[in-house]
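Ligand: adenosine-5'-triphosphate. Inputs:
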Amino acid sequence: MSADSTPLNTSKETANPAADGSELIRFDKVTKRFGSNTVLDSLDFTVNSGKHVTLIGASGSGKTTILRLLMTLIKPEEGTIKVAGDYLTHEERDGELVPAGDRHVREVRKKIGMVFQQFNLFPNMKVLRNVTEAPVHVLGLSPDEAEERARGLLDLVGLGDRCDAYPSQLSGGQQQRVAIARALAMRPQVLLLDEVTSALDPELVAGVLDVLRDIAHTTDITMLCVTHEMNFARDISDDVLMFDAGHVIESGPPEKIFSEPEHERTREFLSAVL
Ligand SMILES: Nc1ncnc2c1ncn2[C@@H]1O[C@H](COP(=O)(O)OP(=O)(O)OP(=O)(O)O)[C@@H](O)[C@H]1O
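Predicted complex:
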């Protein structure tokens, strides 16, 4: 397999330049309101490349809102968001920051992949085509290159033998694994995971989490994860950020947050979910 068709860089030692530990995501004084509801209140946080960061917090604390801002599905009322050095919310023109245009957003968005609660596969396309579609049409890969990449990734998620199936012929867990392969096929610098197992039957959860654990432990991709699966968060996270009322109230490595939380709200939250 040529270097370019390797599904992901699986060696920490030969990590791509994007995973050199430098700052990959920066939220600077980001405020997001829905009507009179201020969900994020002048929020600052950063994620360094190669890190796996999990957002925890009570329902409604704004975790999904952060991922949706990164996907540019919604816009902040105030503040700036940067991904790999580029503003997502703005662009620089003649030395001035102006609201980002569609073209700029599309370019920066290529750095970001997301797996949603609902798998959102194209029902009329076979598994392989679900994974090759965006690399061909968005990245401009040749069909052969895209297929080689897709087959490698479908092997990685344990579905190399289901390339010719339609999504409806797969279990929910398998569909979610295709969705993971599809997101990775764009070679994003950061993978956003939003409650990726919450729509699954309980017996299918472990298979999906195992695939993600494997990706977290064997690749250099940056992950920003929202999950209620605390054991999974403990296993894969370098850092855990606890949200409350639109702020990060506590952060640190999982062994500290889960074993010795400092904040009363973190203790309350963990005692309810653990
Ligand atoms: N499109 C929207 N319109 C109005 N309010 C919204 C919208 N999206 C989110 N909200 C509100 O913003 C708040 C934060 O929602 P968000 O989904 O980010 O929380 P969360 O921490 O991810 O919660 P959960 O753990 O339940 O998924 C909630 O009060 C929610 O009702």
